[in-house]
Design brief:
alpha+beta, Arc Repressor Mutant, subunit A, two-stranded parallel sheet, 5 helices, 119 residues
Length: 119
């Protein structure tokens, strides 16, 4: 599939998500998601989503990990636009950048749904 076709299909997919009520969506390419959304980073995403830690240091304490390693993982998530930071005094508060994140192409029951979106 050409890049132009892939982009067109992805745009159509996001439009359908919006039509279905999924606002504020971010689409990650599967290759990017596989590199970025490791088990440890997903633990950070879940913790941010459920407890809203006030700082990177607080997040590191909550997941019982070294602050430096958590900070590097958060930087990776930031570059992939999964999280963003809000300034809270001297601290940076990690927050989710989007309400919904989808991985493209979508795989369901072992089949890639990319071709079906255009129909």
């Amino acid at each position: 599939m050409s890049i132009k076709t892939r982009v067109s299909t992805a745009v159509e997919f996001v439009k359908r998500l919006s039509d279905a009520g999924f606002e504020d969506t971010h689409l990650l390419q599967r290759e990017t998601a596989e590199k970025v959304l490791t088990e440890k980073r997903m633990e950070l995403v879940r913790e941010i989503a459920t407890t809203e830690p006030e700082s990177v240091r607080e997040l590191a304490r909550r997941v019982d990990r070294d602050v430096g390693r958590v900070s590097r993982d958060l930087d990776t998530l930031y570059k992939a636009e999964v999280i963003e930071y809000e300034q809270k005094g001297r601290a940076k508060q990690p927050v989710l950048a989007h309400e919904n994140i989808f991985v493209w192409p979508v795989v369901y029951d072992g089949s890639v749904l990319e071709e079906n979106v255009q129909k």
